[in-house]
Recover the amino acids of this structure.
């Protein structure tokens, strides 16, 4: 077997060794399980039922289109889809695959879909090439019919006993969330930026990930043996025995280091010159509390509550949200929890949000985060009530994402007041004081830190977005990820000013972007005056170790030099000395 390597951008570090499992965006929810020999006929029958159901649905749609006098094009597309369903490649071959691989029907459809898509992709005729979209549509219909029918009885997937490495063209943060409950060894995607939410969620799972690989899905075959070296940002496909042995050794060494770091779990976190630092975690789901406790962190600095809103067509109710928040509070055993109100929009699109169906020309600059919340006041109020009610069960803070204008803050404060009045009327308890914080994620807010500090109890810098908006680089776009530079002098100055202004105003400030979990940035932040970090639980101990071996006073001197120089060579030298 030919061995080769592919290079991408680091999504998350670590080493994984396993077998490739290719997925495409429409089959992300598809699970793979084996069916026993006596069940194969039943599985084929299940597929045929789904096929029949989709044919009937298409027929109904066709009639509706006729009655509505829809454009002829629509009828033609539906006709093509109906014909595809009758073609042996869709009607028969998945049945053969079920038999051949003893697999579930969904899996057979996804395998067949990939084979068909690959055939269409290489067609010369642009019209035929475009038909790939029809294949995807038809298979998506089939999968929905199958998954809908089988959801109740699906068992936990077991792709194989070997470690499985997902190879995808692209994954949305919601897709990755689905995978949180499955034990995958690593992720590889052709698309994606280093600080896209997809990469962040992968990182939160503590597994290696590499994004922006460009050709992984094309070059890697299902079942190929893979080594993923997240830190080196390289994938080795079908490695030979020596390379495999070497990586197994490295993997054990890394594991050993991880185990050794665990000794720091209960040690107080302070610099060499005795400055105490608060270590907080970022979480996406209440069940992440387990890792928070294992890391020895002081609490949760960022709960990305929007993940409760994804992968579902409806909005979570007040009671459901309350339950999640209480579950997180209980999970972290009474440590403080900062709940960020939902940051939907941009790369975290809410299904079934029909009010604003127009595809935004520039989603990252569009109706996102607090702007989205203010556009949906009833949904926002529901969340605010749930958070306030949770405050009766433990220490809770509210954090507002992507504030850019003081008016937004006033509107949020009014809504919080209204939520409180509603709860009082209902005689529902909430804490007397629920601190309110704002995220500094856009340059406008960073420049007005002193103003925001007047109204807020705390601030948190979202460097992922602050870098995106300051340097004008879409964090999800791999084409410009080489420009995504946390050490850009403008970023260093902006961060220094923000941290120092907030400190001067006496308002606690933290950093919860990915930079906070990067040990190469720890001294930079210490030197800027940061005393609170929030990061993925897996990063807590490495960063803590770094803090324990750093001197704040010295870091401060280097940071001052970094901020004073306009000479790129000197800037690079100071940055190096800071970490020496
Ligand atoms: C950030 O922007 O740095 C941040 C923490 O928020 P998110 O990554 O969820 O946008
Ligand atoms: Mg952000």
């Amino acid at each position: 077997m030919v061995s080769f390597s592919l290079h991408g951008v680091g999504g998350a570090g670590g080493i994984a060794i396993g077998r490739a499992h290719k997925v495409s965006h429409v089959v992300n929810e598809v699970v793979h399980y084996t069916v026993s020999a006596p069940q194969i006929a039943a599985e084929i029958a299940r597929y045929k039922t789904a096929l029949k159901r989709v044919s009937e649905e298409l027929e109904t749609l066709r009639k509706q289109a006729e009655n509505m006098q829809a454009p002829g094009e629509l009828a033609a597309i539906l006709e093509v889809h109906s014909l595809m369903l009758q073609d042996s490649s869709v009607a028969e071959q998945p049945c053969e695959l079920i038999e051949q691989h003893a697999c579930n029907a969904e899996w057979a459809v996804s395998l067949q879909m990939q084979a068909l898509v690959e055939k269409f992709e290489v067609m010369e005729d642009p019209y035929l090439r475009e038909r790939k979209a029809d294949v995807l549509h038809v298979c998506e219909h089939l999968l929905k019919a199958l998954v809908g029918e089988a959801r109740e009885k699906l068992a936990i997937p077991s792709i194989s006993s070997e470690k499985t490495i997902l190879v995808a063209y692209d994954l949305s943060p919601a897709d990755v969330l689905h995978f949180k409950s499955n034990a995958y060894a690593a992720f590889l995607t052709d698309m994606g930026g280093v600080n896209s939410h997809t990469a962040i969620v992968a990182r939160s799972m503590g597994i290696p990930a590499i994004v922006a690989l460009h050709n992984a899905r094309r070059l890697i075959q299902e079942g190929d043996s893979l080594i993923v070296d997240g830190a080196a940002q390289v994938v080795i496909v079908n490695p030979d025995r020596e390379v495999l042995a070497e990586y197994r050794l490295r993997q054990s060494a890394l594991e050993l280091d991880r185990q050794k770091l665990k000794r720091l779990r209960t040690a107080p976190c302070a610099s060499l010159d005795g400055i105490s630092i608060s270590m907080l975690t970022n979480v996406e789901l209440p069940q992440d509390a387990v890792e928070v406790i294992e890391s020895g962190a002081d609490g949760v600095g960022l709960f990305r509550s929007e993940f409760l809103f994804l992968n579902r067509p409806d909005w979570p109710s007040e009671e459901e949200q309350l339950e999640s928040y209480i579950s997180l509070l209980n999970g972290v055993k009474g440590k403080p929890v900062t709940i960020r109100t939902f940051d939907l929009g941009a790369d975290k699109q809410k299904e079934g949000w029909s009010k604003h169906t127009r595809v935004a020309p520039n989603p990252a600059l569009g109706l996102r985060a607090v702007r989205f919340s203010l556009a949906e006041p009833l949904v926002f109020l529901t969340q605010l009530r749930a958070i306030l009610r949770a405050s009766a069960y433990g220490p809770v803070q509210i954090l507002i994402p992507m504030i850019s204008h003081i008016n937004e803050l006033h509107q949020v404060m009014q809504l919080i007041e209204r939520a409180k009045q509603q709860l009082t009327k209902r005689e529902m308890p909430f804490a007397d004081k629920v601190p309110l914080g704002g995220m500094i994620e856009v340059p406008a807010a960073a420049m007005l830190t002193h103003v925001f500090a007047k109204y807020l109890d705390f601030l948190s810098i979202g460097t992922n977005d602050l870098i995106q908006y300051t340097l004008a680089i879409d964090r999800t776009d791999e084409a410009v990820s080489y420009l995504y530079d946390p050490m850009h002098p403008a970023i260093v100055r902006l961060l220094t000013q923000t941290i120092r202004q907030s400190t001067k105003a006496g308002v606690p400030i933290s950093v919860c972007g990915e930079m906070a979990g990067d040990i190469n940035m720890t001294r930079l932040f210490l030197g800027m005056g940061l005393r609170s970090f929030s990061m993925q639980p897996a990063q807590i101990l490495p960063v803590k170790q770094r803090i324990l071996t750093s001197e704040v006073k010295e870091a401060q001197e280097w940071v001052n030099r970094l901020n004073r120089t306009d000479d790129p060579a000197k800037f690079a030298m100071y940055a190096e000395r800071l970490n020496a």
In short: The chain has a mean pLDDT of 88. The two ends are 44 Å apart (CA to CA).
